[in-house]
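FIELD: query
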Amino acid sequence: METAQDGAQGIASFRAAKPNFVILDLRMPLIGGQDVCRQIRKESEEVPIIILTGSADEVDRVLLLELGADDYVIKPFSPKELLARVRAVLRRANRAPAVERLYFDDVAVDFPKMEVTRGNRLVAMAPQELKLLKYFSQYPERVISRDQLLSDVWGYNSYPSTRTVDSHILNLRQKLEKNPANPVHFVTVHNAGYKFVP
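FIELD: result
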């Protein structure tokens, strides 16, 4: 484990050690934590970053995510909470490899182009619907709970209600199922969650 006393040392240490995880305090001398986060993200898109911050301000949270942080912990925090966040971020980072294209029934999805066609007609999809569809495509046939979907697709920092998941599933059914009232691809598993069956 490498530690650094200031931002400049942190960047140098990151370049030398090539860590597989970064916990970054926003209040650092010389170079601030935001600039360090920005620099690390420029040099590596893969390394998970958790920010330690003293502020619960909503603007700060949005800024941290835009800087490329994967999660944040507000001080003071318990070591157990920090460890739980680290494990969650590592789980997301070690997910199944991204699916580029997906085909089922008369539906074709090109994720890099963000295009969905059904029977050769373009289907308008909201970005979050595509993100949810992409997540499902990585785990076909697997039952995924609403909480897991909220955590992995929406992220800890936006944490909407489980109704948000339900309404997005409903949208996917209406746009991509032959019979939305009797879905065969986006299946509800009662008291457990949802399952995608290609």
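FIELD: remark
The two ends are 43 Å apart (CA to CA).
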